């Protein structure tokens, strides 16, 4: 199951992926007035919920395989969303959180990630490109990971024997460095100022 918080360009990419994999994308956006007309575009692999993320996440049953969080960008809502999401994730499921290096938003986003993940066994990679994106991998979950099958056997049958995950052991929780986050945000902001002043292309 794919969870998409914040309807946008990423929604199209997730829907395309679901068509290839047989998955279902559940998209939630609070802006009912803006997106109501898309309700009629729902199909077997896309469901649209126009409501607050808190009510949506509580009512959609897990387990979740992948979550794209590009909805609320304030500390309270982002933290609450993550606290609901993480217990519903499969082992090795991924959560992508946008704007973790955006100059006006990164403090709230990084603090929400830090505080929401304290009680969970996770790994984090924080990509500094554009506005930044944190990728959280859930290392431990009551929902087992789903391994891909190894393909089609010579006689045409589908091989259902799972391929073992190649995974490095994770000894403890990897946290986002607040100092690194501030430095990256400062660098992005400086680059923006230099471009506005015509000193950088």
What does this entry look like structurally?
- The chain has 201 residues and is of the alpha/beta class.
- It has a single domain, classed as Vaccinia Virus protein VP39 (Rossmann fold, 3-Layer(aba) Sandwich).
- It has 6 helices and 9 strands.
- The protein has helices at 9-21, 32-35, 53-59, 75-85, 106-116, 178-196, and strands spanning 2-5, 25-28, 46-49, 64-69, 89-98, 122-127, 133-138, 149-152, 158-162.
- The strands form 2 sheets. It has a 7-stranded mixed beta sheet with strand order 3-2-1-4-5-7-6, with helices on one face. Strands 8-9 form a two-stranded antiparallel sheet.
- β6 (122-127) and β7 (133-138) form a beta hairpin.
- α3 (53-59) runs parallel beside α4 (75-85) and α4 (75-85) runs parallel beside α5.
- The longest helix is centred in the last third of the chain and has 19 residues, at 178-196.
- The radius of gyration is 19 Å and the shape is globular.
- Residues 159-177 have low confidence and may be disordered.
Give the secondary structure arrangement, pairings included:
Elements: E1 2-5, H1 9-21, E2 25-28, H2 32-35, E3 46-49, H3 53-59, E4 64-69, H4 75-85, E5 89-98, H5 106-116, E6 122-127, E7 133-138, E8 149-152, E9 158-162, H6 178-196
Parallel strand pairs: 1-2, 1-4, 2-3, 4-5
Antiparallel strand pairs: 5-7, 6-7, 8-9
Helix pairs in contact: 3-4, 4-5
């Amino acid at each position: 199951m794919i969870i998409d918080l914040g309807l946008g360009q990423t929604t199209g990419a997730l829907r395309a992926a679901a068509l290839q994999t047989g998955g279902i994308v559940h998209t939630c956006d609070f802006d009912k007035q803006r997106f109501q007309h898309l309700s009629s575009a729902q199909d077997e692999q896309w469901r649209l919920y126009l409501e607050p993320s808190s009510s949506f996440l509580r009512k959609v049953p897990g387990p979740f395989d992948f979550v794209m969080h590009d909805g609320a960008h304030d500390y309270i809502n982002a933290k609450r969303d993550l606290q609901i999401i993480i217990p519903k994730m499969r082992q090795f499921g991924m959560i992508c959180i946008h704007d973790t290096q955006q100059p006006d938003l990164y403090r709230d986003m990084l603090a929400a990630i830090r505080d929401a993940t304290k009680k969970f066994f996770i790994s984090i990679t924080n990509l500094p490109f554009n506005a930044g994106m944190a990728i959280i991998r859930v290392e431990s979950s009551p929902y087992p990971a789903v391994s891909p099958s190894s393909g089609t056997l010579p006689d045409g049958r589908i091989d259902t024997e799972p391929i073992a995950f190649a995974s490095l052991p994770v000894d403890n929780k990897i946290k986002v460095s607040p100092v690194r986050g501030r430095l990256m945000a400062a660098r992005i902001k400086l680059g923006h100022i230099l471009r506005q002043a015509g000193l950088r292309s």
